[in-house]
Structure formats: structure tokens, C-alpha cells
Amino acid sequence: MLICLPELCILSGLMQCVILAAGKGTRMQPLTKDIPKPLVEVCGKTLIQHIVEALPSEIDEIILVVGYMEDKIREYCGEEFCGRGVKYVTQGNHCGGTGDALLYAKSLITGRFLFMYADDIHGAEALKKVISYPYAMMSAHSDEPQHFGVLELNEDGTLKAIHEKPENPPSNLINIGGIVLDEKIFSYEITKSNVGELYVTDMVTALAKDCPVKVVEQSLWIPVSRPEDVGKAEKILEGCD
Predict the structure, then answer these.
(1) Rg (CA), the chain
(2) Is residue 7 part of a domain?
(3) pTM tops 0.90, yes or no
(4) 189: CATH
């Protein structure tokens, strides 16, 4: 069993950010017919640029897990992107799930890191807050939580478990990425889901049994999963200017 210190704020220290960018973006077609989803533009910026620009200054290195049209992502981001160094790892089976993708990045991870998805736009304030905890994750409220990973909380508000697309959600708080982890996460072996994928949320649920995982609500979360979401996102971002 892992032993963790009581919750405390970490006020300094550089971190990595692992961003999953390997998927085909099937639901985004036809926009993803010729480009990978992270390069879809919203308000004149690619999704990956929106994500990286919102990261706190403590993030000095990006690890991109790539797969579908990875050459275009490598060409676009290069070895340095938005002032941060970039490393790449190819997910051999980009349908293997989020946990499988994270395992591919294991050899590049050195200490604490922020785990992100490449298709959500986030507000910078919550990202800054979430990295101030040893272990933490961002959340948002949803009217249809059964379509997401749903958070079950302990009495003190820390994470108890994440339930993937449950028929009877224990809350309306959902996982939106932005999870602060470290190398301990690789101590937990998980089994494949009924659809044959490894979920990083199962790894985080196992971690939460040993370590307090703070839940931070994100006030600005814009998922971009389908072509019509681009227009919706642009209206929201215009309203934030």
C-alpha cells in the first residue's frame, strides 16, 4: 500500500503535462478527414494551442501522445511550442484507451505531471489551482453525467471513485481531464474495460484509495467533440473577451 502525506500545497516546482492526441476524432468528421482533431481551429487557434496557452507557468514540458496523422502534429508543434519543450510518444493502438496512452508516456515522465485531453478548452484559473495539490483533478457539472466518467466523492470532498458512463450516476460531477499525478500512478495495475480499453480513470480510482485526490471545479470547460461544437465554442469564447 502506498503511504501519502496529508494534503498540502506545493508552491513551486516545474512539471510536465501529458496531452492525449492520438485519436482519430471520428465524431469530428468531416473536419478531421485531412487533419487530426488537435489541429481543428476555434476562433483562429487550434485546439492544442488553446490548451497549451492556458497551462500554468509551472508546466515547462509537454509530452504529446500521438497516433492518427501524427506527422502533422509533430510538424505543427515542433520541439518547442508556446514557449515549452515538446516530446512525443506514439501510441501503438490509439484505440487502446486513456490508460494505455498514459502507459506509453511512462518512460518520459519524471515526477509530478498534469494529464490532459487534446479536445477540451479550459480556463487558466482552475488549471493554476489544480496543480497546487499533490494529487487533484478538475471537474464540471453536467446535466447528462451518464455519458461521462462520473465522480463519487468522500465526505471531505476528495475523490472516492470515478464511474465510467454509469446507468445511475452518484453525482452530476464529471471528469474533464486536468488530473495531477506522479509516477505512483504506474504502481496500479488495471484490467481492460468491457470494450477492451484501459481507462486512466480506473488508475485514478485505485490511487484515491491510498491518497487524497482533491477535486477542483472548472468554471470554463468547453468540450469540442463534434463539428457543431466549434461554433458553440466560438460563441462562448467571444463572450469571455
Answers:
(1) 17
(2) no
(3) yes
(4) 3.90.550.10
